[in-house]
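Fresh eyes needed here. Kindly weigh in on this sequence plus structure tokens:
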Amino acid sequence: MTINMVDLKTQYQHIQDDIDSAVLEVIRSCQYINGPAVKRFKKNLSEYLGAHVIPCANGTDALQIALMALGLQAGDEVITPAFTYIATAEVIALLKLKPVFVDVDPHTFNLDPSKLEAAITDKTKVIIPVHLFGQSADMEPILQIANKHNIFVVEDNAQAIGSTYTFANGQRMKAGTIGHIGTTSFYPSKNLGAYGDGGAIFARDEALAQRIQVICNHGSSKRYYHHSIGVNSRLDSIQAAILDAKLKHLDVYTANRQKAADMYDDAFANLEGIVIPKRAHNATHVFHQYTLRVLEGRQKRDAIRQWMSEHKVPTMIYYPLPLHEQPAYAHYADPSAELPVSERLSAEVISLPMHSELTEDQINFITQTFKEAVAKA
């Protein structure tokens, strides 16, 4: 059987009529930029999340625009986890801000709130928790620390759209709508993915949402009048139409991913030397990735990958280097800071195929092959 890390073809076949008619409607309308499809998707996603939504061109733009909206100055410090995708640090550096790397929880892979206080200085202006692999970071203590020090919180929700976080008092909020600003990516492989690039920014405060919208549109709220420095970052109408058609299925896609993760968990729960992903008690996991840890480290992990590849099962390493060890960002790292968890995870993690179209036969084949790989490595 053919197994893919992501199966967009089968997903498309299941909703082909909806997608084709949505795209054709845009083409016939000839309204390709900020047309009715964009406005409809913006409205529907806003209702789903319970926050204002500002669509943009991609997830990296979303992060950059979020930071631009906060009135930061060159040299201001932005705390970010050391174990995440490069875009989180990239936008900080591009805006002449300073990324400050903090370690993550070894079980959830998300920013460790207990490490935050030690990283805060009088220059700290923003904390960016990343909801990695599909599970919200522990936002309640992060918000408490941020409020104590008057620091903005910008959520990088590129991998966890649809995840729900529950506060101690029972209040529930969607990931990406909890801090001052949230961002997401609609890259095709995401849980809610376009057929090209796309992204969005979320804010519960209306004035802040309007400021973000102006930045996305060249710093303009009235055509040819520009009151602030902005960028050109738009979600085109065809991608919006596709996303709106898929948004109706997002909760079903999430349930399918969770079912696949349950099968993986059952297969690997007692596999010696392998740690299955933890599901936090206060956050739903939407499993953008299903990521295991190989406790013996890089050599065994890489041997497992080789076996899997030889047996036609793809795997990925997210991520092979923590941010503070990336050549482009190493000079930002504090030599005295210790980031052992991020360094260890980079040597241990391995992600298996995860998408909404996985069949039981495919999962059984993947789990059996992985067990064989572990035994052989």
Observations:
- The domain at 250-376 is CATH 3.90.1150.10 (Aspartate Aminotransferase, domain 1).
- The two ends are 24 Å apart (CA to CA).
- The longest strand covers residues 52-56.
- The chain has two domains: 8-247, 250-376.
